[in-house]
Every structure is written in C-alpha cells, then in structure tokens.
Amino acid sequence: MENALEARDIIKYFHDPVSFQVIKKISFEIKKGEFVSIIGKSGCGKSTLLYILSTMDTEYEGALLIDGELMKNKTERELARVRNKKIGFVFQFHYLLNEFTVLKNVMLPGMKLAERPLDEIEQMAFEKLKILGMEKHVLKKPNQLSGGEKQRVAIARALINNPLIIMADEPTGNLDKRNSETVLEIFSRLANEFHQTLLIVTHDNEFASRTHRIIEMEDGKIISPLHL
Amino acid sequence: MNIRLIAEIARSLLLARFKQTLVAAIGVTFSITMFITLLSFMTGLNNMLDSLIVNRTPHIRLYNEIRPSAEQPVNQYESFKGMHHFIHSIKPKKDLANIRNSLAIMHSLKQDKRVMGIAPKLSEQVFYTVGTVDLTGVINGIDPEEESRLFFFHDYVTTGNTADLKNTPNSIILGKGAAEKMMVEPGDVITVTTVKGNKMQLKVVGFFQSGLADFDKVNSYTSIATAQKMMGEASDYITDIQVKLYDINLAPAVAKEYSLIYGTEALDIQTANAQFETGTFIRTLISYTVGITLLIVAGFGIYNILNMMIYEKMDSIAIMKATGFSGRDVKMIFIGIALSIGLFGGSAGLAFGYGLSSIIDLIPFRTQALPTITTYPVNYNPKFYLIGIVFSLITTYLSGFFPAKKASRIDPVIIIRGK
C-alpha cells in the first residue's frame, strides 16, 4: 500500500538554553489507512516529532514526505495549503473559536480550502458532526458545550477536508474517563469503518493498545516499532 | 472566496470585542470630526479675511506716483550737456496724477487675454463741508458696474444701491463712518470742496461699509463722470486703472510688463498684501497639524487594541494557522479589522464633522467690520472630506500593520505546546 507519510532521518535540535538533540535520526513510514500511535514518556520528543510531521515546525534535518511529496523547501503558504488539504489536527485543547457556531468552526478549514461551494461545505460539516453525534449542537457556540463535546467538534473540524491523515496530540489528555472512551471509540471507528489514516501521540498505554501499530519512543529515538 | 472568508473572520473578531473596537472607532471619529470642522472653519475664516482684501484689491493697479519729472528742462539744454547740474527745490507737477492717454491704455488692456476686466478710478482729496466744519476725505470716482462685477463693490454698500450712482446725477455713496460724522441720511445733500477750491453739491444715495473703519471715515464713492466734473477735468482724466486678471498668480509678472509698456507705476496684489498669504498659509498649516496629531493619537489607540486582541486571540490564530491559514491570511484579517475601524470611524467622523461645521455655520457672527457676514464662515470643501477619509484609512492601516505582522508571525507550535 502507498505511504501516507514518510520520515527519513529526522533530526531536531533545541538551542535554548543549551543545544540539545531532541530527535535523533528517526525514520519510519505510515501507510494509508493505518492507525498508528506514538507513545513514550514526557519529554521523549514525541510531541516535537508530531509538530515536525505536521509541517508546522520547519527547523529540522532530514526529509519528510507527505503523500509522496517532499516538504523541504516549501514556502510558508505552500505548507499552510498542505496542512489545510491533507492534514487534520486534534489537540489536547480543543481550540475552537468562540466567535463562531459549532457548524462554522467545522466549516472554516473547508472554506479556507475553497474547493467546494459553501452550501456543500455546510452539508459536509453537518455530516461530519452527525458521525460524531453532535448534530443537535450545530448552532451552539463552543462555550456552551462540555469538554468532551468540544473535543468531538474539534475532531469533526479535522475531518472536514477529508484529510489524508489525522494527527492528534494527546487528544484525551484533558478529558475524563468516559469522554476519553468516547473519543477513542470515534478514532477506532474512523480507522475501521472509514479507513482513515490516523497518527495519535499519547502517553496512555491503554489507548495505544487499541491502535494498529505502536511506535514507542525514548530519549528521541524509536525503541519498538511493534506491529499488533 | 478567500477574501470573503477573511472578511467574515475579521468581522467576527471585531464584533466579539465590540466595546473595545467601538472605543477605537470613536477615537478615529473624534479626530476626523475635529479635522473636518477645524479645516472647514479655518478655511472659511481664511477665505473671508482674504476676500476682505483680495476681492476688493485690484490684481494690478496702474497709477502715477506724484513726483518730480525725471527729465528736468536743464537736461535738454544743449549747452549744458555732459555737465553736472545742481537744481534746488524741484517740485512735483500736479497733473502727473493723471494717467496720460488713459483711453488708449484701457482699450489695449481690454484686448489682453489674461485680463478679466478693468475698472478706471479717479481718486481725489476733498473736504466734506458740514456747516462750518470741513472734514478731510477722499472721493473715488468709479464705474459702479465694473467695480461691482470685478471688486464686489455692491457687497459693501449697506444702504442704497450702486446703480444709483449712475442713475442719479451728482450722487455720492458715503462711507458709514463719514456719514455718521456728518449726520446725514440718504436723500440729504452735502457740499464737497476740492483741493483746488471747486465746490459741488452732491446727493447722498447710500452708505458703504468696507470692514476697515478708518477707510470708511474718509472715503466716499461717486461716478467717474461726476468726479471729473467736480474737478473740472476732461473725460479722460483718471488716476488709477484697476486690472483684474484671470490668474492672480500672474500679477507680479504682468505688472512689470505693464509698467514698461504704459510708462506708469504698476503695483501687483502680492507686493501690496504680502502679509495675507503668510497668514492664510500659517492658519491652514495649524489646522492640518492639529488634525493629523489627533489622528496619530487615535492610531495609537487602534494599535493598542489590536495588540490586546492578538494576545487574547493567540489560540485562535494558532489553530487557524494549524488548519491551513497562512501568515498572510492572518495578517489580512487584522489589517482588515484595523481598516474597518478606520473606515467606519472615519465615515462617522465625516458625518459628524459636517454636522458640527453646519452648526458653526448657524452661529450668529455679526461684526461692524464685515457687513456681509451674519454667521461664522464655514467652507464646505469636499477636498477636506476626501483628505479626512484618506488620512483615517492610512493611519489605521499603519497602526494595524505592525500588530498584524506580529500576528502573522505567531508560531502555532509554541502556543499549542504551551498548553
């Protein structure tokens, strides 16, 4: 199967306060349709790796290919376009815009991509929210929702442009047990039913155990690319 | 599509901080209001003060200075040629005040394409005889029609009609101050004595008020024919030819030219009234300076509010960048916010400025000096409104530019990692 994402010899330094190698020559690939988790202790560099993979962090050595395309030497605008079209993000914090309704929040990346007419984007946003069981809340403002609900809206937003890959950074980090379970179920469903490629960074081993592949990191290196 | 989306986001952010943006917009509104009002009022006053002098003053005045002839008879005497002459007690000749060949000069002036019109004038020292008292004065013989057309004479005639000078034989329009001294009313007859001793009875048909009290105490107007008759001179006897040009700026050059052609003195308006242009310039400069200062202060307000908004919306900016908005999009959003503050605040400022200047325009302002003015003068020049809105857009753009640039450079990783 084709690679959704490929990392070749990624090296990353932090220079403040002293030079320190966070990522030490990491290479791996994620095939289309794979459900992958990266686990590791705090400070092992897993979030840093994710930001490099997401194209938001551009100061690294090595090569990153998304959908077979090299990300090096792309301009800031081109990278923004890649993130818009090919990558969906879910963070620990929901980052919804309180000025807009739930529906509009989901629509914004679609409107930015502007590949479809507005009514079609609206229809798609509604469908994505329906998949996540949020169709009753479409006209609410994010600050009227609970934490778990907000995170589900954030997932719907990540889905709007039918991205190649969804990247999540501790998506359950801020949620209680029950909501975490819901989010996990949603990710499993996306992977199994919709064959969505997913890359989840987490320190929750139970969460990780339900993904297709676990990449374990320690001290800036991959120590066990296990296949389950 | 992209522009619409950016406009929509800008609008939402703006409405989310409605009170703050309102305060910022009010700052702009206030400064534009003051800018418009100040300029309208100042230029209104300027124009009024200028017109006090400029409208009434000929652009070029041709006249003869009373002075001794440069060519004394002894110079023409062959035997003394090349010698040094000592001549004592040279006296000027009276008839030099007359412009020689005046009819031909006027005819030639009328042919000049730069000349809007000419008005002949005959000024003469006289005594107004009231009972046993003789008051000194100056009688100006004028052509009432041309004087009104070119120099707005009718504006200063507060009682009576300028046409009466022509229609009523031996009539006179007295300065308000002179009339008060003599205690005469229109219809009364006064006696005027010329310096040469000629006496004449003149009928008062009106009063004028020039705005310069000293001038009004001395001067009076009559028709040029009456003046010539009074002085016992021929109908080509005039002392001044007043020229009005189409372009006032040509006056100094044209004056020099006329002086050479016609052999008279030619005084241009710029030389005669240099101080007025300076005054006008300074007043306009002050208005602009105050207006721009106010706008800059308002600009700082906008800068602060946008900076605060960016700190507050750091998360939103980060997620927008993460989900595919480029730095340029973010910059455009914040510049859009700044410009709409400028546009709405500025437009409101134009409206309020117009309103305030209209109110000033209604305030009664009566002064002895200016008979034609009843309220404060206001100049509604559309230029000020154009400058106002352009200034407000430029200032708000500049004050939005730096915060917007900062927002565009926000690194989403740092924000997201910080949570």
Give a brief rundown of this model.
Chain A has 228 residues and is of the alpha/beta class. Chain A has helices at residues 46-53, 76-86, 102-113, 118-131, 147-159, 177-194, 205-209, and strands spanning 3-14, 20-31, 35-40, 61-66, 69-70, 87-90, 165-169, 197-201, 213-218, 221-227.
Strand content of chain B: 15-25%
**Unreliable stretches of chain A:** none
Considering residues with a beta carbon less than 8 A from a beta carbon on another chain, report the largest interface and each chain's count: A-B, 30 and 28 residues
Structural class of chain A: alpha/beta
- Supply the CATH superfamily name of chain A: P-loop containing nucleotide triphosphate hydrolases
Sheet with most strands of chain B: 6 strands, mixed, barrel
Strand tally of chain A is 10
Question: Radius of gyration of chain B over alpha carbons?
Answer: 33 Å
CATH class of chain A: Alpha Beta
Average pLDDT level of chain A? 87
- Uncertain runs of chain B are none
Characterise the protein shown here.
Chain A is of the alpha/beta class and 228 residues long. Helix content of chain A is 36%, strand content 29%. Chain A has one domain (32-60, 72-227): 3-Layer(aba) Sandwich (Rossmann fold), CATH 3.40.50.300. Chain A is built from seven helices and ten strands. Chain A starts with a strand and ends with a strand. The mean pLDDT of chain A is 87. Chain B is an alpha+beta fold. In chain B, strands 2-3-8-5-7-6 form a six-stranded mixed β-barrel, surrounded by four helices. In chain B, a hairpin with a 4-residue loop joins strand 6 and strand 7 (199-208). The chains are: A alpha/beta (228), B alpha+beta (419). Chain A binds chain B through residues 47, 51, 54, 56-57, 76-77, 80-81, 83-85, 89, 91-93, 95-100, 108-109, 111-114, 157, 169, and chain B through 1-2, 5, 9, 12-13, 15-16, 315-316, 318-329, 411-413, 416-417, 419.
